Structures are given as C-alpha cells and as structure tokens.
Amino acid sequence: MGSPGCDCVGSTVHLPLMSFSDYPHSESALQAWEEEEDTKPPRGLISVPKHTVPERSLQGVFLPCFDMLLTENSSWLLKKSEAAPPVPPCKALEQCPVINSQGLGVPSGLEGQVEERCLEQVQSMVLGEVLKDIQTACKLLNITPDPMEWNCGNVQKWLLWTEHLYRLPQVGKVFQELSGKDLCSMTEEDFRQRSMQCGDLLYAHLDIWRSAACMKEPCTPGDNRLHGAEEADSSCSGQPIHLWQFLRELLLKPHNYGHCIRWLNKEKGIFKIEDSAYVSRLWGIRKNRPAMNYDKLSRSIRQYYKKGIIRKPDVSQRLVYQFVHPV
DNA sequence: TACCAGGAATAGG
DNA sequence: CCTATTCCTGGTA
Fold first, then answer.
1. Stated pTM of the model
2. Which residues 209-268 in chain A have a CB closer than 7 A to strand C?
3. Nearest nt to A238, CA vs C1'?
4. Is the Cβ–Cβ distance between A145 and A134 less than 8 Å?
5. What integer pLDDT is reported at residue A109 of this predicted model?
C-alpha cells in the first residue's frame, strides 16, 4: 500500500520540450521508433531545479507541453509552446506553469500574493491534467498508476509508451527483467548508466508518475474507480484485451482519441479510423508489439468478418468499419 | 501509395 | 485451442 519510494525531495527534474509537430505521426516516425539506433539526443531537454516541498505534492514539475496523450484538453499547453518554440530554458521557465504547492521562490509583497494566487490556479489546472493524462495512459496500457506495483511486463509497456511519447530510441532491453520496484529503487545515475541518451528523461518521467501516485494514494483501494457511463471495461477483466474491445474503448473517449478514430454513426456502430498509423501504434503499445502497423491491425480486423464481430459497412469506404452488434 | 481481401504459417496466452 | 501476429499475393482507388 504505502509507497516507500516517495522520497519526493531534492534533485533535479529534466523534462522534454516538445511541440505538436514533434509528435510522431508519420510512418517515418514509426520507423524511427522501431529502429534501435537513433544517435540524436532527445531534443529540447532542459533541466529544472526542484524545490524542497512537503510530501504528497508534485515537486517542481514543469510542463511546457506534457502531452501524454495529446488530449484536446491539454492542447492549450501545446499551443503555448508552439507559439514560442525556441525559448531559451531560463525564459521558458518563467512562462511555464510549475506544479508546486509551496516552497517556490515566489516574489513577496502584494504583487507576489496576486501572482501566487494565479500560480496556484495554474498549478492545480496542470496538476489535474497530469493526473488525468496518467489515468488515461493507465487505461490505455492497462497498468496501475503506481510504478511500485508494476511487474516486468508493465515496466516494458510503460517504457514503450514513454519512448513513443518522447520519440526515444528503444531502450526496453536495457531495462529488461526489472519490476516497478526495481525501477523505483534506481537512482538517476543508474538510469543514466543504463541509457546514456535518455536515462535522465526516463527517470524524470518515472518521477512524475511516482509523485502522482504519491499524491493520489488516499483514494486508491482498487484504484479503478470508473466514473460515469464507461464501465464495460476490458481492463480489469484480467484476460488479454481483444482488438475490437480496444477499438471500442478508444471510440468511447472521443475527447482523447477523436482525432484518430471516431464514430460515423454510433447507433449503427459505424466508425472511421482517421489516423491509421496512430491507432496501430497505440494498439502495438497496448499489446507490447512495437512492430505493429496498420497492415497487421487491419488483418486482425478482417479476422472478425467471419466471426461476425466487425464488418465493412454496406457502402464500403476506406478506413471505415462497422460493429455487427452495436451497443 | 495506401488501403483491402484473405491464405497460410506461426506465436502466445 | 483460440486469437492475434506476421508475411504474402493480388486487387482497387
């Protein structure tokens, strides 16, 4: 229950600066993702000094563009960084929201108080986004938010996801056989030793997750408290997820995935894959299949024809399919 | 060039 | 055993 890995104090957090255009969308990006060697260091890395803060707060987490899932609701973050991409780190720091409840070097005096208010608001907004993004990622990957609970497979999925997110070269092998506990016990230096290129970024990203898990601890009995309408979740059933279930899950969250898959006619179960490469990549990450592509995903969909799960709609269109039994 | 259909072999739970 | 993955041939827009 308690996470001993909660020593959320001190050291330095490195986070990437990314813009929407950096996001891996094209097939060539996928190639880069698959190919082992990419000698370029992660771009836009800056480092932010952490501040000593009380437990249970995300310390000094700086998020110019924490586009975990490219959700629409976090797009304002993207816009911000898009508007002024080549900001030198120190400038960027000034403009960017910092999550940190107290202990920040906030200016004193009246102006300071006003600023502090604003800052607090921004902080809680960003914090909300971070938690939401983590939660969404957890659903997508079918892992728990607390790294301490991860098994080796979970760790690999998380790595795959993070690599995808920040366009890192594949480092899964270097972290093989490691559980979440192992991962959490590693220092930043350990990370850097395992991966020269992106050890520190991975460490920082893990730190965010760890911190988030720290804060959320009070309300995590089984953690999968489903809100609202979305229950029919395959994630907690234990069995490996089916492709059709996965697609349905994406379709149930137009807010998050509407840009890559959406209903054309929900009543009839007709949907369109808008970004085949992206959906395939998500599927590949979920199943731990880095080589997944639309060619293979679509083959799997076609297997459903015979089984009467998915079919082509009466008027066949490219990238459009239909659930035989709509909900 | 990207998508579509389906056979066949194989992997993996 | 079943589903999904991988690879493939050939076809369409």
1. 0.57
2. 242-244
3. B13
4. yes
5. 58
